[in-house]
Amino acid sequence: GQQVMQIPQYQHVQEGEDFTTYCNSSTTLSNIQWYKQRPGGHPVFLIQLVKSGEVKKQKRLTFQFGEAKKNSSLHITATQTTDVGTYFCAGNAGNMLTFGGGTRLMVKP
Amino acid sequence: DSGVTQTPKHLITATGQRVTLRCSPRSGDLSVYWYQQSLDQGLQFLIQYYNGEERAKGNILERFSAQQFPDLHSELNLSSLELGDSALYFCASSRIPRGVGPDTQYFGPGTRLTVL
């Protein structure tokens, strides 16, 4: 079945440093979604990417969808303590949305 | 607030028992998904219902079952509980327009199940 891998599993950064999480799918995706889960909270939808090579920005967050539509990345510029949480990608292939294992971001003030 | 409600918020029970978790989707959403999240783990997809019918099945144990009722709320039944079933159980809903793939999922606050 479809597998979605995310790396790294954990990342500690100093406040102000950049952060990137990568997502790789075993199959070609029709689209990919990104979610953020704050500690003690529930996953919250951030964005969806549909087109090959698509790049979208939300303030300090930049999301990319690979040309082959099998990988994606989320980059945060100049992290803040409010960025703390676990970031999940979710790949859509066929009728199934498969979540990656998530990257837990910890930010030291 | 995502508009998805889940009850109860916390549940503590003993091994061998049976519990029912309840989820009400956002108004207008026809699809309900159930996920299990163990401590520091990712989201394990359990099962999906669409307009009352089972649509997709993930890593759901035979001891677990779910259903979606005519009013679109859903229940997840967990029986013969084991210590390893202790986890956060999330429900999510989506609109899924006809003929289109999975839509954005809106998650409820979750039910934390502790099996002692």
Q: Any overview of this molecule?
A:
The complex is a heterodimer of chains A (109) and B (116). By secondary structure, chain A is mainly β. In chain A, 0% of the residues lie in helices and 58% in strands. Chain A has strands at residues 4-7, 10-14, 19-25, 31-37, 44-49, 55-58, 61-65, 71-76, 85-93, 96-99, 103-108. In chain A, the strands form 2 sheets. In chain A, strands 2, 4, 5, 9, 10 and 11 form a 6-stranded mixed sheet that branches. In chain A, β9 (85-93) and β10 form a beta hairpin. The radius of gyration of chain A is 13 Å and the shape is globular. In chain B, strands 2, 4, 5, 6, 9, 10 and 11 form a 7-stranded mixed sheet that branches. In chain B, β5 and β6 (53-57) form a beta hairpin. Chain B is an all-beta fold and 116 residues long. The A-B interface holds A 30-31, 33, 35, 41-45, 48, 88, 90, 92, 94-102, 104 and B 2, 35, 40-43, 45, 55-56, 90, 92, 101-102, 104-110.
SSE topology sketch:
The complex is a heterodimer of chains A (109) and B (116).
Chain A: E1 4-7, E2 10-14, E3 19-25, E4 31-37, E5 44-49, E6 55-58, E7 61-65, E8 71-76, E9 85-93, E10 96-99, E11 103-108
Parallel strand pairs in A: 2-11
Antiparallel strand pairs in A: 1-3, 3-8, 4-5, 4-9, 6-7, 7-8, 9-10, 9-11
Chain B: E1 5-7, E2 10-13, E3 19-24, E4 31-37, E5 44-50, E6 53-57, E7 64-68, E8 74-78, E9 87-94, E10 106-107, E11 111-115
Name its key features:
heterodimer, A: 109 residues, mainly beta, six-stranded mixed β-sheet, 11 strands, B: 116 residues, seven-stranded mixed β-sheet, four-stranded antiparallel β-sheet, 0% helix
Quick rundown:
The complex is a heterodimer of chains A (109) and B (116). Chain A is mostly beta strands and 109 residues long. In chain A, 0% of the residues lie in helices and 58% in strands.
